[in-house]
Amino acid sequence: MSKANPDGEGTECVREDCNSTMASNWYGKKGAKVCRACYGKLNQRRDSAAATTGSKRVSIESPIFEQPIVEPPLDAAAPIKKIVKIIGARLWDPSKALEPADLRVPLAEDEEELEYLIFGQFVRPDLKDSYGFLSTRWLTAEHLVEHIGLGLLQTAIKEWESGLAARRSAKLEELVEAAAAEREEVGEGRGAAAAAGSGGEEV
Ligand SMILES: [Zn+2]
Question: Distance, CA 17 to ligand 1 centroid (Å)?
Answer without folding.
Answer: 8
